[in-house]
Amino acid sequence: MRSALYYPHTTIRSDHLLKTSLLLWDSVHVIVPWPHYTPHHRSKEAAEAFSLIGKCHFPTDAEKEHAHKLVEDFVTRPLPAAFSYSLDRNAHDHYDIYPEKFLYKTVEMLRERGMSVQAGRRNMRSSAATGLAVMNIVADCCAGKTLARVTDEGTAYASLAGLLIEPDATVAVNEARETLVPILIRAIDVKKFSLKRLIDFRKREVSSADGSQLRALRHKLLDKIEGQAKQMATLGPGLARKTMQDEFEADMKDDYRDLRDALKAKATETLATKEFLTAAISGVGSIATSCAVPVFPLAAPASGVQGAISVGGLLALKSKWVQERRKLLKEHPTAYIYEAVGGLRL
Questions:
Q1: Would you give the distance in Å from CA 270 to the centre of its chain?
Q2: pTM of this structure
Q3: How many C-beta neighbours within 10 Å does residue 18 have?
Q4: Which of 27, 80, 105, 198 has the fewest Cβ atoms within 10 angstroms?
Q5: Phi/psi at 139 (nearest 5 deg)?
Q6: Using CA of residue 35, residue 42, residue 44, residue 150, what is the dihedral sign?
Q7: pLDDT in tens, 132-172
Q8: What is the per-residue burial (b if ≥16 Cβ within 10 Å, else e) of 250-269?
Q9: What is the largest CA-CA distance in the chain?
Q10: E strands of the chain, at which residues?
């Protein structure tokens, strides 16, 4: 799974979820009430992030029919009073839903069973528990086996555990993934991950010459998370699951540190080569140093055969460094995050 579907709202409200989505997914779909609907974002940066990876999905008739059957099964179960709706009783506990996301008969069924009323900004108001539950169902139907499911309402859904559709392997993997991603971010402790930085980085992936290589690094990171999530999904809550989470965090810390150290060692080795020292001593270009990051000169005021040889030697040396750097990045799952931070370059 390289793309995801967001639920339960029509717009991704969490900047944190936008950041992790920019780090992981090819695209993130949101469920909209009609074709050509435009989500409303809280900030220009959030809108820009969505423009890069966001897609709107209006449920098909087949998806709505599938959802109707699941909702019908759900509402016929014995449910707590929290799923009933009354204008007087639940005035401060409501969830507004676009009825267009469901079939008409689904909307009528919920009203007939006292679980929603014709009210609110979107013309269908239910209790929070009912709203979250039915949006969970329609998200399952739209995501299928192709899209991962992501939400910024994890705490709310945790309170409904055991009341929703019986979890299958896909749901268990989604839950495990939602646990692993924050662990990954915490393990590397990237304080420079502003939303703007990640937006610019994804723009680079889309438009730059090395965009396909960056995409491959992102897929490698995602594959690592997916593999770990599938293993975790086979475990119930308890010591074994906690141990696997701790091991994943330690592995990510080690991988990031090892990559950083390997690149620094390779850079030191490159700067100590005869070709580089000869070029520097003979006055070919200048070695610019900023924050201990060496930068190769791209042009040089050299003349004669010696100058040509020196420039040629530097260009060949830089080409060798680029190839070795690329090889190291491919070996580490955390390389995409390392590149997002800025990475070490010559």
A1: 35
A2: 0.83
A3: 27
A4: 80
A5: -65, -40
A6: negative
A7: 999 999 999 999 988 998 988 888 887 776 666 555 567 77
A8: ebbbebbeebbebbeebbee
A9: 90
A10: 4-6, 28-31, 54-57, 95-96, 116-117, 125-126, 148-150, 288-290, 293-295
